[in-house]
Amino acid sequence: MLPDGAPRASALSDVAVHAGVSHQTVSRVVNGHPNVAPATRERVQRAITELGYRPNTAARALVTGSTRSFGLVTSHINQYGPAQTLLGLEKAARAAGYSLGVAILDDDSEAAMREAVDRFVAQSVDAVVALSTYGQAVEALRRFEAPVPLIAVQVGRDSSRPTVWVAQEVGAELATRHLLELGHRTVHHVTGPPDSLEARGRMVGWRRALEDAGAPVPEPLHGDWWPCSGHAAGRELAARVRAGQDDVTAVFVANDQMALGLLSALADAGLSVPDDVSVVGFDDVPECAYFTPPLTTVRQDFAELGRRGVELVLARLRGEPLESQPVLPQLVVRRSTGPARQTV
Predict the structure, then answer these.
(1) pLDDT tens-digit profile of 237-285?
(2) What are the two backbone dihedrals, phi and then psi, of residue 191, each rounded to the nearest 5 degrees?
(3) Of the residues 95, 138, 248, 331, which has the fewest C-beta atoms closer than 10 A?
(4) N- to C-terminal Cα separation, the chain
(5) Do strands 188-191 and 163-164 pair parallel, antiparallel, or not at all (unpaired)?
(6) Residues 224, 253: contact at Cβ < 8 Å?
(7) Residues 6+ apart with CB under 8 A from 337
(8) Distance of CA 16 to the CA centre of its chain
(9) CA 160 to chain centroid
(10) Residue whose C-alpha is closest to residue 276's, from 319, 326, 336, 325
(11) pTM of the full predicted structure?
(12) At a CB cut-off of 8 Å and minimum separation 6, what does 32 contact?
C-alpha cells in the first residue's frame, strides 16, 4: 500500500515492493526486456495496474535511448481505408507497448511529407510509419531517407523500402471473376481517382481478370471515392441499359461509397439489383450489410495490416530482416450479385 499523506504518483520502488521483486526486475518489465519469467512479469504488471503506475517516459528514454513511440504520417483520413488502417496501426502499436503520434497532411506533396517526418525525428520517435496511397507522396517516400526506420504502408511492393500492403489487384480479380462466373459476358468498372495507387491497382486487377477470361474490356467510368461520383456513373450505366446495350449486366465499383451512389441511381432508374445489374464494391464498410440490397464486396483486413506494419517496425528496430508479404483480401458475397439476365 502507498503511505498515507498527500497523493503522489507511484514510483518504480512502490511497484517493486507491491510485487515483491527487485527494482531491476520492475525496470526490465517496464522496458520490455525479454529475460523475465512469465509468472514474474504477470505479477509486476498486476502491481502496475493496481498502483496506477505510469512510467516516466523522459527518464526511460535517457536510460534506454528509446521513447517507445512511433510517428505516423498520413493524409485523406476522412476516407474509410486510411482511417481503418490508422486504427489498426494504433491498436497494434499499443499492444506492443508503444504510443503512436499522428501527423495528418493537408496535401500529399513531398515538402509536406518531409516536414512531418523531420518533426517526428526531432521528437525522438523510434520509427516513422508513412501511410499514403497517392502518387506524389509515394514517390517522395522513395526519394528521401530518415535517421530512424521509415516504414511505408499501403504503397505496394517497394524494393527500396520496407512496406506492408493489401493486394489490391488480387481483390479486384476476385470481384471480377465472381461476376464472370455468374455468367456475365463482361464487367464494367467505376474507378477511384487517377492519382490513387489503390485505385490503379484495382483497375489493373479488373482488366487482368477480363483479359484472362477472354472477355471484352469496356471503357471504365471514372469516380473519386465518394457516393456522388458513383451516382453519376450509375445514371450513365442505367441510360445504356434503357438504350438496349445488353452488355451492361455487371459492375465492379472501386469502393463501397461509390457503390452506394450507384445502387441509388439504378433504383431511381427503375432497375433491379441484381436482376438487371449485379454490383460488387470494395472495402466492406460496416454499412454494406444494410445497403439495398446488401452489397457483395471485397474485404480488407485492416487489423492484420496494422499488426504487420508494427511487426515490420519492431524487426527494423532490432536489426532483423523481415520479408513482408501482402495482406490478401477476401470476397464477401451478399445479395447484390446474381446470374446474368437473359438477353434476346
Answers:
(1) 999 999 988 889 999 999 999 999 999 999 999 999 999 999 999 999 9
(2) -85, 165
(3) 95
(4) 84
(5) unpaired
(6) no
(7) 178, 179, 182, 250, 274, 278, 279, 280, 296
(8) 40
(9) 21
(10) 336
(11) 0.79
(12) 68, 97
